[in-house]
């Protein structure tokens, strides 16, 4: 699996003394303080990089707001961010996608989560102080960005792109985009180890759902959190033609988009 996208706890342990390696903990602040965290990690809670004015859809916070978070955490544009949570990586994947969208060159997901790290490596509750930076974001332009809007999804349907719904079966049965296939993001994670399945197992799993690397893929869920995890998985496997419908089903239904019902 591509280590420029996903890294193991072993990799982080071997590299975390490098000044450019910056673990980023996206759990709630109380978890960071009371339960513990990876030594040297910065706390950037998940709710802080969601748009407060658009809470229902959970859209991105805006480039300047995100840059302020990174500045306060002492992060510079040349740093390697390693995002983690304690929820199998789904919230950390959202930080991955957010940082990517705002032009951070090197951001990675910790394979596993805080629990996976703490089984093998040191944790701490000690506070870490960072010297603030003046982080300047460089948002991707439309051609570079993996994020797409409703019009692009309509165009994707016209060209028979593969729409992938990353939600649970009951949600899919209640409403989904016409023609979508369902791939629950949690299927990619081993519950016991809390890490992603092996590369071979992931490839086989995706193929069993009809998802292959030669396809034009558009991901959606409800509020763009779960698709972030699947996006990272596909990117780590080398899938190239993958788009993320940022508004997801919440926006689609609000704009009277056509839906289907029934289980996959």
TrEMBL record:
The keyword Cell membrane does not apply. GO terms for molecular function: thiosulfate-cyanide sulfurtransferase activity. The keyword Cell division does not apply. It comes from the Archaea. Keywords: Repeat, Transferase. It holds the Pfam family Rhodanese. Residues 17-126, 157-261 form the Rhodanese domain. Its EC number is 2.8.1.1. InterPro entries: Rhodanese-like_dom, Rhodanese-like_dom_sf, Thiosulfate_sulfurtransferase, Thiosulphate_STrfase_CS. Signal peptide: none annotated. This is Thiosulfate sulfurtransferase.
């Amino acid at each position: 699996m591509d280590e420029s996208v996903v890294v193991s706890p072993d990799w982080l342990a071997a590299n975390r003394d490098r000044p450019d390696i910056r673990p980023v903990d996206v759990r709630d602040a109380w978890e960071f303080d009371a339960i513990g965290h990876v030594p040297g990690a910065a706390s950037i809670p998940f709710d802080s990089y969601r748009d407060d004015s658009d809470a229902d859809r959970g859209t991105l916070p805006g480039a300047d707001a995100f840059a302020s978070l990174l500045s306060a955490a002492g992060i510079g544009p040349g740093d390697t961010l390693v995002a983690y949570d304690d929820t199998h990586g789904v919230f950390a994947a959202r930080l991955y996608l957010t940082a990517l969208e705002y032009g951070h060159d090197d951001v990675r997901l910790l394979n596993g989560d805080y629990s996976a790290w703490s089984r093998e490596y040191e944790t701490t509750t000690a506070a870490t102080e960072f010297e603030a930076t003046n982080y300047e974001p460089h948002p991707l332009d439309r051609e570079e960005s993996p994020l797409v809007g409703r019009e692009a999804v309509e165009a994707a349907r016209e060209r028979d792109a593969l729409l992938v719904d990353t939600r649970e079966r009951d949600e899919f049965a209640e409403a989904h985009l016409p023609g979508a296939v369902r791939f629950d993001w949690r299927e990619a994670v081993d519950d016991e180890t809390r890490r992603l399945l092996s590369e071979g197992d992931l490839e086989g799993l995706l193929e069993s759902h009809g998802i292959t690397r030669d396809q034009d893929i558009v991901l959606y869920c409800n509020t763009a959190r779960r698709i972030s995890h699947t996006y990272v998985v596909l990117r780590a496997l080398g899938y190239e033609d993958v788009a993320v419908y940022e508004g997801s089903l919440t926006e689609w239904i609000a704009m009277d988009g056509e839906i289907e019902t029934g289980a996959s």
